[in-house]
């Protein structure tokens, strides 16, 4: 059935735009008609399904005329297994205008992306309801979600204890008489079979239709809609056992001779054990989201803000965070949390940023420094101006990023989705075949064997474990990474990072501190050292490069007065040129500063400094040259200190079996000296800024998948080109679009942490998937009775219920081990 929508399109300015946008839509395979209107800036599109619409959105983006889209997050209630995930996603994707729907079983949330104006949130909620579940718009704060989960645990707890108290006497009456002779005698002679079975009937009925009602309320409607889930399996299995027992209790004559037995205890114990499993599962699932809860808990509730009052006076007031505005003056006393992002205007203190960056040492703060919401002011008092509030704060961005990563779907999930889509119907078919085989070929009483084994098959099947295997590991893994100052912007990076064979490191600011110092300054005989340094510093004062800052700082430290500089130009990756203004004693001078290749390009020989340059490069220093009016004037050496943590990090990379490459603009001699010092395997030297992409491609051809680590600003193209781009954040800026992973601190040990968490998370997912599939593949045949002919072994439905409950618990507790990664 075809769908049609009106999609608002951006950047339409002329008839040519309309033609190109129309072509982009029409070229999408599956689109049946398309018409773009320049006046309304909308496109009428007819298409068969959400998959085609997703391709339309991609093609319009590529063509430069993006469709305006929206993203909504929903909290889902009533989801229990992988089948639920498939049903909700399928229902949402049927809504015209929705092109992406991702449901996460572990967090019980859905992310829906749709074309603006085509869908209302209420429509999405009603769609989810029609699929048999409840949905609410996800709050920016997590309070409602927390309340819902607490209410769910409380409800399950009450249901379990109610069921357990009623099931215990049933179990004692039925099973006790099998194992305790005195109990058997009392039940047979004192209580009597009729009263015994009637009592079990009453208690079991209460268990099934009060605490167990949740299974029937969801399971049977799902079955009638033709989309059965785990609740359907439980409802069918327990109903079959209960109905057979009711017939045996009240009209035994309709049953074949020797088959009038009751299975009340099986029905009651199944419900009780599955409720226990759900309770333990809900508690464990709550713990998988601890990282988000901890981050949300960092948000301050109030702040001391300076506000104007009567008579043009101002005073400090305690205000809720929601009332703070950009530009407000805020005070943070010792021990208090910083309320919003801001810039310090007065005071000196140390701020504990470990909860955001993973760095345990408090950071000194003074006027002009930035502070981030959620961090803790340690000792002094600080007054700061609010610069970012609400969802714009660093803390809010981190929470959003972690949530998005936790909702990611790895490529391995595609196989799970295919299996779970048909799993419950296949289990029902297996149960039916089991009943038929036992009825036809089973020993007497065949009906009893058929019923017990059919119920066991229905109960032991566990789609929950398969549905939880991947998302719970991703939730715990990305949450643990956030605690270590590693933010996965893309959850898929967990898998791509694990597959990397080589770590490519940008030198400046990554391997080194990024704060170089002037170490050597030598002038030719025809120039004055102080004058040349003054001229060079005057030129470099116009640049923001770290090397330029080092030269300026050296000149200012000697109290050298800097002349006026004009016509400053930067030649990317080569150097700078400028004109030094005339003075009373000197004519205007043209000055060029850069690497040896820059001098050679200007036909300026640098052979006079060959010996000095080789010596400096061998020491790992970066030699630069200065020429004044076309004549070589000086050689400058700047050294950048290697980070203290770099050698240990490179050793750790090697221990993980990775090759380590360094990409730098330095000349080869300097670069190889640093590489030898740090035991780096591969050096790519003399690389211009736009050559880093080629360097990444070459490394991929030589070694395989590449993880590139850079600063996220100058290295954006290389980050995007790498299989996994890792950006070293400043601790206050994490909105680095080209990166897959963002490090909250510049320490390379954070890259090691990211690699280890990535590998352990993928290993954990494999363990979970192996358990989930192996459990179902091995125990379903056992439940069906394949071991009976050879060994006389049958699986009790009660044991099947216990195994099913434990299957999900195993997956969850295994994922929670990642908290220690």
Commentary on this structure:
This protein is of the alpha+beta class. The protein is 50% helix and 19% strand. The chain has 29 helices and 29 strands. A seven-stranded mixed sheet has the order 17-29-28-27-18-25-26, with helices on both faces. Helix 14 (413-441) runs antiparallel to helix 16, helix 19 packs across helix 20 (546-557) and helix 27 (749-784) packs antiparallel against helix 29 (797-816). The chain starts with a strand and ends in a 5-residue tail after the last helix.
Poorly predicted segments: none
- What gross morphology would you assign? elongated
Helix share, percent: 40-55%
Q: Overall pLDDT, averaged?
A: 85
Tell me the total number of β-strands.
Answer: 29
Strand residue percentage: 15-25%
Largest sheet: 7 strands, mixed
Whole-Å distance between the termini? 49 Å
Give the helix tally.
29
Radius of gyration of CA atoms, rounded to a whole number? 35 Å
The class by helix and strand makeup works out as: alpha+beta
- Strand neighbour order, sheet with most strands: 17-29-28-27-18-25-26
Defining traits:
alpha+beta; six-stranded antiparallel β-sheet; 29 helices
């Amino acid at each position: 059935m075809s769908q049609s929508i009106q999609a608002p399109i951006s950047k339409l300015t002329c008839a040519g735009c309309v033609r190109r946008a129309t072509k982009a839509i029409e070229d999408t395979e599956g689109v049946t008609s398309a018409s773009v209107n320049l006046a309304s800036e909308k496109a009428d599109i007819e298409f068969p399904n959400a998959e085609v619409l997703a391709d339309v959105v991609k093609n319009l983006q590529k063509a430069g005329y993006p469709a305006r889209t929206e993203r909504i997050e929903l909290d889902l209630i009533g989801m229990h297994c992988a089948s639920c995930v498939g049903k909700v996603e399928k229902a949402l994707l049927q809504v015209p205008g929705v092109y992406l729907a991702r449901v996460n079983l572990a967090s019980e949330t859905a992310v829906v992306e749709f074309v603006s104006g085509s869908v209302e949130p209420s429509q999405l909620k009603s769609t989810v309801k029609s699929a048999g579940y409840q949905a609410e718009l996800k709050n920016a704060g997590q309070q409602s979600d927390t309340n819902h989960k607490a209410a769910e645990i409380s409800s399950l707890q009450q249901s379990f204890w109610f069921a357990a108290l009623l099931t215990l006497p049933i179990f004692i009456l039925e099973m006790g008489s099998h194992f305790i002779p005195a109990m058997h005698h009392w039940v047979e002679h004192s209580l009597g079979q009729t009263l015994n079975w009637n009592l079990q009937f009453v208690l079991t009925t209460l268990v099934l239709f009060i605490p167990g009602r949740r299974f029937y309320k969801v399971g049977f409607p799902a079955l009638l809609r033709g989309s059965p889930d785990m609740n359907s399996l439980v409802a069918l299995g327990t109903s079959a056992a209960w109905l057979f027992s009711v017939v045996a209790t009240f009209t035994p004559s309709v049953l074949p001779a020797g088959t009038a037995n009751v299975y009340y205890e099986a029905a009651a114990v199944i419900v009780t054990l599955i409720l226990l499993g759900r309770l333990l599962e809900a508690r464990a699932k709550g713990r998988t989201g601890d990282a988000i809860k901890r981050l949300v808990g960092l948000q301050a509730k109030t702040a001391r803000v300076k506000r104007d009052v009567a008579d043009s006076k101002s005073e400090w007031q305690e205000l809720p965070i929601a009332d703070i505005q950009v530009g407000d003056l805020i005070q943070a006393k010792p021990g208090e949390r910083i309320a919003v992002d801001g810039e310090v205007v007065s005071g000196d203190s140390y701020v504990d940023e470990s909860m955001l960056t993973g760095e345990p040492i408090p950071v000194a703060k003074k006027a002009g420094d930035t502070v981030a919401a959620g961090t803790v002011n340690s000792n002094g008092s600080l007054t700061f101006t609010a610069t970012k509030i609400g969802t714009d704060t660093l803390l809010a961005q981190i929470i959003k990023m972690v949530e998005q990563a936790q909702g990611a779907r790895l490529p391995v999930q595609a196989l799970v989705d295919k299996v779970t889509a048909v799993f419950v119907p296949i289990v029902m078919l297996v149960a039916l075949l089991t009943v038929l085989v036992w009825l036809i070929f089973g020993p007497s009483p065949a009906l009893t064997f058929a019923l017990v084994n059919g119920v066991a098959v229905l109960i032991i099947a566990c789609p929950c474990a398969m549905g939880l295997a991947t998302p719970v590991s991703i939730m715990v893994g990305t949450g643990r990474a956030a605690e270590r100052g590693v933010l996965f912007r893309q959850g898929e990076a967990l898998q791509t990072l694990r597959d990397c064979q080589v770590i490519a490191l940008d030198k400046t600011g990554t391997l080194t501190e990024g704060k170089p110092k002037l170490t050597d300054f030598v002038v030719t005989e025809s120039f004055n050292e102080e004058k040349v340094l003054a001229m060079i510093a005057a030129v470099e004062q116009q640049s923001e490069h770290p090397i330029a800052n080092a030269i300026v700082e050296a000149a200012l430290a000697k109290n050298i007065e800097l002349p006026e500089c004009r016509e400053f130009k930067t030649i990317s990756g080569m150097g700078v040129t400028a004109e030094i203004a005339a003075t009373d004693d000197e004519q205007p001078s043209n000055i060029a500063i850069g690497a040896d290749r820059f001098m050679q390009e200007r036909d300026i020989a640098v052979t006079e400094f060959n010996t000095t340059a080789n010596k400096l490069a061998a020491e790992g220093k970066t030699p630069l040259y200065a020429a004044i009016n076309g004549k070589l004037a000086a050689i400058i050496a700047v050294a950048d200190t290697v980070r203290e943590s770099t050698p240990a990090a490179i050793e750790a990379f090697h221990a993980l079996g990775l090759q380590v490459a360094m990409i730098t603009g330095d000349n080869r001699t300097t670069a190889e000296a640093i590489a030898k010092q740090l035991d780096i395997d591969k050096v790519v030297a003399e690389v211009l800024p736009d050559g880093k992409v080629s360097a990444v491609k070459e490394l991929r051809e030589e070694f395989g998948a590449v993880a590139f680590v850079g600063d996220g600003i100058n290295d954006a193209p290389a980050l995007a080109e790498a299989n996994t781009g890792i950006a070293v954040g400043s601790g206050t800026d994490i909105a680095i679009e080209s990166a897959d992973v963002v490090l909250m601190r510049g320490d390379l040990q954070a890259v090691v942490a990211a690699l280890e968490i990535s590998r352990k998370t993928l290993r954990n997912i494999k363990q979970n998937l192996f358990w989930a599939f192996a459990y179902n593949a091995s125990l379903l045949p056992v439940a069906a009775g394949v071991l009976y002919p050879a060994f006389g072994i049958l699986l009790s439905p009660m044991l099947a219920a216990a195994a099913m409950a434990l299957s999900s618990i195993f997956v969850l507790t295994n994922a929670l081990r990642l908290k220690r990664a």
